[in-house]
Each structure stands twice: as structure tokens, then as C-alpha cells.
Amino acid sequence: MVEQQTSNLALEIINRLRSLENRYTILGEQMLVINQNMIEEYKRFTQEFKEIHENNKKLQDDVTKLKKH
């Protein structure tokens, strides 16, 4: 009887451990996707920022030219 209870407890612990390992693996995969998305968003943001900066510089040049005339 005690052996059966010990065996059942061991199986329950093993099952819980497997469940936790599964969750850990899933969380790791989700974190990888989140990191990849953040990198892509950062790249997109920096590209947009560069374009805005270039447009601003062009506008400043245009204003300077207009002031000279």
C-alpha cells in the first residue's frame, strides 16, 4: 500500500515536472517571437526616423533657399 502511494506520488511529480517543462518551452518560444518582433519594429522605427530626418533637412534647405531669394 505504501509502495503504491509512493509510486503514485512519484508519477504525479514526474507529470507535473513534464507539464512545467512544456510551459517553459512554450514561454521560451513566445519570448523568441516577441524579441524578433521587437527587432523588426526597431528596424522599422529607425528607418522611418531616418526618412523624417531627411525630409526635415530638405525642408530646412528649402526654407533657407527661399529666405535668400
Describe the structure.
- With 69 residues, this protein is mainly α.
- Helix content is 97%, strand content 0%.
- The protein is built from one helix and no strands.
- The chain has one helix at residues 2-68.
- It is rod-shaped and about 100 Å long.
- The protein starts with a helix and ends with a helix.
- The model has no long low-confidence stretch (mean pLDDT 96).
The percent of residues in helical segments reads: over 70%
Strand content: under 5%
Largest sheet: none
Helix and strand run: H
Cα-atom Rg, whole angstroms? 30 Å
Shape: rod-shaped
Task: Please specify the SSE layout and strand pairing.
Blueprint: H1 2-68
In short:
With 69 residues, this protein is mainly alpha-helical. The protein has one helix spanning 2-68.
